[in-house]
Amino acid sequence: DNTRKVHIVYMGEKQHSNLKLITDSHIDMLASVVGSKEAAVKSMIYSYQHGFSGFAAMLSKDQAKMIAELPGVVHVTRNQLHSLQ
Amino acid sequence: TTRSWDYLGLSTHYPSNLSHKAKKGDGIIIGFFDSGVWPESEVFDDEGYGPVPTRWKGHCDSGQLFNATADCNKKLIGAKWFIDGFLAENKEPFNTTEKPDYLSPRDVVGHGTHVSAIAAGSFVSNTSFKGLGLGLARGAATRARIAMYKVFWNVGPVICSSADLLRAFDEAIHDGVDLLSLSIGSFVPLFSDVDERDGIAIGAFHAVAKGIPVIAAAGNTGPHAQTIQNTAPWILTVAASTVDRSFPTLLTLGNNITIMGQALFAGKEIGFTGLVYPETSELVYPSFCESLSFNNTSVDGKVVLCFTTVGSRAVLTTAASAVREAGGVGVIVARNPSDMLGSCGNDFPCVVVDYELGTQILFYIRSARSPTVKISPSKTLVGNPVATKVADFSSRGPSSIAPAILKPDIAAPGVSILAASSPAYPFEAGGFSILSGTSFSTPHVSGIVALLKAIQPNWSPAAIRSAIVTTAWKSDPYGEPIFSEGSTWKLADPFDFGGGLVNPNKAAEPGLVYDMGTNDYIHYLCAVGYNDSSISLVVGKVTTCPGTKPSILDVNLPSITIPNLSKSVVLTRTVKNVGSVNSMYKSLIVPPIGISVSVRPQTLIFNSTTNRVSFKVTFTTTHKVNTRFYFGSLTWTDGFHAVTSPISVRTQIIQSYTDDN
């Protein structure tokens, strides 16, 4: 599916320390946009849960827009490349 | 490295220096986000190390040619690799046969090995690059532990994705690193501080909020102004300078004139042989090193002279390849600056001279019937009279995001740094290579931060940054001025080197620090206009910016940068006493040209009940036109300490106006 690209959903400082709850909440949020938990698990690349909250997932432009409007989301942006110096 | 720690005053011979006080960084864990490690390198030797700190929650992951049990030890205590974000982006498998790499923490390009060795490599005696730069290689914090998070992949360019980088932050914070060293940059235009496309600023914010200093590269897009990267005020941003070491390489022309170029040429002397400058028949364009062609010139068995305006090391290898393929035996590259060296492989001499010396050679070629040259092997020159310069490639301030936040913060050695490498890297010798870049100045500061953390575990990342900035050398360790390489040479200013050249021993005793915590960063985020809800989420608590927007000039930095002074402005700073409990500091101002500066109060008194004091500084411009930045300084001194903040002020009568000011 070429319309889906890596996006990062940034949700700021984590709200609690239960890692399973954090990941579950990320999957639930993603499922609400991609249609099912199975699809969410498939789309998810990383669930950020220690230093801060958020996740990286394969999303279409429209899905990214929808997630950006959900409460608790600071930003949704495309992945970016970096180089050594 | 074999020279920079002596140059910076951390010689193994002097027991009173910071390295000894900090027990060589024992107990400190440095996290690196880079291209991996070559675990067999002697710099990861763990002989004599005690147990891994019990607070460490990290581990090593196995993978291609990397066995976590066998390859990690008490020195290399963490090694993980993150590639899923990169693979998802590319949507195809990573062909490591076509582009050599290992799907594991193993380092194929040598960069991560080099960087981690600079900060924390163990002692390796009699180290050199084919005899050049011979000495005792070691990191700043030789007893610190290393945790490598491999996020860079060799896909032609060596790149990483933000998704993987953020994962590395997430894991490193969890694992319990004491500081993070990122020899990473992106591209101008930059993303905002709370935009995770940047990957670094957001990850760094959360690390710093948890007390983990983040040290990052200034970038290699200098010497142009406003090219600085990693500009967030919570990051310690590092520019690159040279050290007091060079590699003079004698060129003897057929007319017996000798010229001293520079090279990493460790082969046998090239006896007198033909010397050519492959001019085109039209004589319109000079022979650029990056596009050499030899249609009209035979270079077989000869040495070729070429000119270039490109400063990168790649030009050397491009020119050397072209000459070698045409049967030539050496190349002389004329360019300015001339200290960006590189090995051209197989002991093929690629000697760099500046335009003045290059022109002398050219005039000799044009005047001689059969011009010849002899190339002697490079020597190593250490100490005086090699001057210190901020490297041409080092990205310059002011910050294009927030010009009131001085960047870079500091400069450290980043030119021709000898350290461990990967045997798979083509330009290494005996497991070591000589490399240049802000990638390599960054771990110098990381190693120093590790030492500071060892003696002052409770200092915040901002306090450490302040200690480093306010105590930096403004001149080189010999007292000579530091120049800035660029299109025209000038004395280095705060946009070249921030506070100056890092002075580790002084940084250990700063006297006063400009401390900051999460509330100060909230102040900054409010000042630059982020909304309450974004800031609340970023910091994890409900935050409301004041009704009157706070001034970015009041962010409690160890520097003062005013990019748009139109008449007069007053700013506030607060210093914390970290020296003797009872002390008194007096102010000393060097005002920028045309700017009047006054401080209230002029004396700061500290005692057992007062260890933080605020002061106000008033700036008034007398200029009547938009000016460029002028520089000065504010120093607080108690007679023993000198706590110096660089001042940069630009008068803007017309605001937001571009006129090359």
- Binned, the helix content of chain B reads 10-25%
Topology of chain A as a string of helices (H) and strands (E): EHHEEHEE
What is the overall number of helices of chain A? 3
Low-confidence stretches of chain A: none
Please, how many helices of chain B? 15
Oligomer: heterodimer
Number of strands of chain A: 5
Mean pLDDT of chain B: 94
Q: Report on the biggest sheet of chain A.
A: 4 strands, antiparallel
Q: Using the CA coordinates, give the radius of gyration of chain B.
A: 25 Å
How would you sum up this structure, described in words?
With 85 residues, chain A is an alpha+beta fold. Chain A has three helices and five strands; from the N terminus they run E-H-H-E-E-H-E-E. Chain A has a four-stranded antiparallel sheet with strand order 2-3-1-4. In chain A, strand 2 and strand 3 (54-59) form a beta hairpin. The longest helix of chain A has 16 residues, at 19-34. Chain A is globular and about 35 Å long. The relative contact order of chain A is 0.30. The mean pLDDT of chain A is 93. Helices cover 20% and strands 27% of the residues of chain B. In chain B, helix 5 packs parallel to helix 10. The longest helix of chain B has 18 residues, at 438-455. Chain B starts with a helix and ends in a 10-residue tail after the last strand. At the A-B interface, strand 1, strand 2, strand 3, strand 4 and strand 5 of A face helix 4, strand 7, helix 6, strand 9 and helix 7 of B. Strand 5 (81-84) of chain A pairs antiparallel with strand 9 of chain B, so a sheet runs across the interface.
In short:
The complex is a heterodimer of chains A (85) and B (661). By secondary structure, chain A is α+β, with helices and mostly antiparallel strands. Chain A has helices spanning 19-34, 37-43, 61-68, and strands at 5-10, 44-48, 54-59, 75-78, 81-84.
Key features of this structure:
heterodimer, A: 85 residues, alpha+beta, B: alpha/beta, seven-stranded parallel beta sheet, 15 helices, 35 strands
